[in-house]
Specification:
The protein is mostly helical. Helix content is about 60%, strand content about 10%. It is built from 5 helices and 2 strands, in the order αβαααβα. The protein has a two-stranded parallel sheet with strand order 1-2.
Length: about 100
Amino acid sequence: AVEFETNRVRIRRYGTVVWLEAPAEDLWRRIERDPQSSRTRPDLAGGGLEEVRAVLNRRAPLYAATAHFAVRVIDRTPDQVAADIEAWLDAARPE
């Protein structure tokens, strides 16, 4: 969806967008460990790490331009990431 400008505009206009940033190597490890990835994410499952790098390189600027907030998730627990998002949302909320 993020590759189409009309989608990016709509996504940003109608929601709060948080980009969960991770390096290609980490994304590939997650895909390899998840047996459903090959069925649910075929664009990232067939070409190995190089394909993940290529897709991420193509999409990263689009994610960055669309996101209201970005959180690096490498070496962080889901609770830590959620706490960062919650803190950002609290700070961004008008008083």
